[in-house]
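#struct-pred
JK: can someone run the complex with nicotinamide-adenine-dinucleotide? inputs below
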Amino acid sequence: MTEISRREFLQQSAAAAGSVALLGGSALAADNAPAKPVSPNEVIRIATIGCGGMGNAHLGALTNLKNSGYPVEIVAVSDVYQVRLDAATARTGAKPYSDYRKILERKDIDAVSVAAPDHWHSRITIEAADAGKDVYCEKPMTHWRDLKEAQDVVAAIARNKRVMQVGTQFVSSSLWEETGSRIKSGAIGKVIHAQGSDMRNGPIGVYDPKSNDGQADPTKNLDWKMWLGPAKKRDWDPGRFFAFRSFWDYSGGCGTDFLPHIMTPLVRTMGLGFPKRVSGTGGQYQLKDGREVPDIFTITMEYADGPSVLLIASLANDSSLPWVIRGHTGTITMDLGKSVIAPQKAVTGEAPGEEIVAKRGWSLEEHFRDFLDCVKVRRKPRSNEMLGYQVMTALHMGIHSYQTGRSMAFDQATGRARFV
Ligand SMILES: NC(=O)c1ccc[n+]([C@@H]2O[C@H](COP(=O)([O-])OP(=O)(O)OC[C@H]3O[C@@H](n4cnc5c(N)ncnc54)[C@H](O)[C@@H]3O)[C@@H](O)[C@H]2O)c1
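RT: done, structure tokens with the ligand placed:
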């Protein structure tokens, strides 16, 4: 990292260091300028914290990037479960740590990738930023319960002039930029509505709350107290360890597990910023197996002067609601490879439609590459902490609304959500 690039980044970040609550979608618009070329000589030294399912995907993506010539090195790995720590060490040759704080003490590490469960995200991110590390943190950016976690993450990244990427890898497709620029140029007129979903039915994403690998044992190979960390103290429960997404203390269920992937591209493409009012509904209709979270979750969000947005996540039916953005003069239907813009005949007559095919597809490697490029040139990545804060604001309000049966309103000036 040259002194010049650090100074430039300081200037770029000056705006972000202001009032967190006042920053909205427009602050993001300037963040997506093209990257400067990456110097091939600077090797970014990175550590992965949390080496379970997604942590291993991080290790795979980083290894693929390194093998393709990208200057990155996995130098440390951390997990509180010895079996997984041993496997990550064997896979990478990196130095193992059962306590991630020892990694943060190392001055020779530039960045961390965080794939511990959600209840750890804000704490590790803030400590890492305060220790001078750039952070790639898995979605959801923070735990759903307290919005202050998201605000504290934004503040920590700003005060330390760090780079942060949230692990919503779908945004790495260029389709969102290409579609967003057509919306900005008026291709569908005034945008009034958007929708999306992640619907599943089967083993992937369901997370049986009685899961157990038969090996994990806090008296031998697992630091259960450390795993609980900032969450409520409890006796060892393998179901909570292996299926944390089924319990409110560690996850918001399918709402916060699936919807950051669906919502982040929409918020980015339309420049939505913060929601004005949010409602969450749903229920536990099929999976009455000891889990606390719903098997279907629906969230509706209203943004000032539009649009309204509807998202659904499910564990018990996989018929999806595609990504659609509805404007007064046209409708855009998207999958991850292409957008189709269909005119509203009632307004435009027989105007021709349009198809946008993504120039760049999405992948975890591409999402990491964006992060690492930004680490080098001190630029905000595609799924940065401000976007994460906006998404977490909606999900925080949606889960509280689901639990209480009341809608919530957000005041951007104070950063407060309240029941209405
Ligand atoms: N982007 C994606 O597509 C995607 C996919 C899966 C999971 N995720 C996210 O990744 C995170 C982890 O999910 P998972 O399925 O890999 O869970 P997992 O349980 O398989 O892995 C989490 C690992 O973190 C370890 N851990 C917990 N606390 C720790 C600490 N303080 N220090 C070090 N290690 C710690 C656990 O022992 C465990 O091995 C979640 O937040 C999840 O939402 C993202």
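RT: quick notes.
The longest helix spans residues 385-404.
The pocket of nicotinamide-adenine-dinucleotide is lined by residues 49-55, 78-81, 84, 100, 115-118, 120, 138-139, 167, 169, 226-227, 229, 257 (CB under 6 Å).
JK: thanks, will look after standup
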